[in-house]
Amino acid sequence: DGGITQSPKYLFRKEGQNVTLSCEQNLNHDAMYWYRQDPGQGLRLIYYSQIVNDFQKGDIAEGYSVSREKKESFPLTVTSAQKNPTAFYLCASRPTAGANSPLHFGNGTRLTVT
Amino acid sequence: AQSVTQPDIHITVSEGASLELRCNYSYGATPYLFWYVQSPGQGLQLLLKYFSGDTLVQGIKGFEAEFKRSQSSFNLRKPSVHWSDAAEYFCAVGAISAAGNKLTFGGGTRVLVKP
Known about the structure:
The structure holds 2 protein chains of 2 kinds.
Chain A: E1 4-7, E2 10-13, E3 19-25, E4 31-37, E5 43-51, E6 54-57, E7 64-66, E8 76-78, E9 87-94, E10 104-105, E11 109-113
Chain B: E1 3-5, E2 10-14, E3 19-21, E4 24-26, E5 32-38, E6 44-50, E7 56-58, E8 64-68, E9 73-78, E10 87-94, E11 103-105, E12 109-114
Parallel strand pairs in B: 2-12
Antiparallel strand pairs in B: 1-4, 3-9, 5-6, 5-10, 7-8, 8-9, 10-11, 10-12
């Protein structure tokens, strides 16, 4: 079955460490996205990529980095510069970057930094 | 820039009763509108979408939504809720921009279903 795989489901890190969240899709989608979800704040866009080898900052990119070397993969690195990294992270993709193209979501990674 | 407001943070409804979730958007042109549902600890699943045409759209799981341009609203409804409808619901607007066609989400409405 096609879908988006995020791993791991739970991740624990010490403050000051960088951590990379994995996102892989086998839907052959061009566009991929990373969202952060905090209680009561909905989803906020971190980074997005409309095509391989290209990505743009979203609304809350500070303290995060991404790469898009392959169409199916869009890993997110949470760096030590991110002030409040504990959150639920969702990866999504869609066939094209068109505004009417709905997002497909992975099941998320819950990151806890202590 | 576009924005989405879901005025109700929590709604409690009895099983078998009707449900309506409110969504108001702000966008200068005709928006692309979506409703998603999220079960605890899971990703989001698309319930339905509106692009153009008939303003009443049908989705999965027995949900429907009505686009009202005059009120800038896209409210979600279900005539009779089931216990499995307990989840968080997100309204989203897709807008065209030179910086990329981003999807903006509302803050979500958590639905609790009483037996």
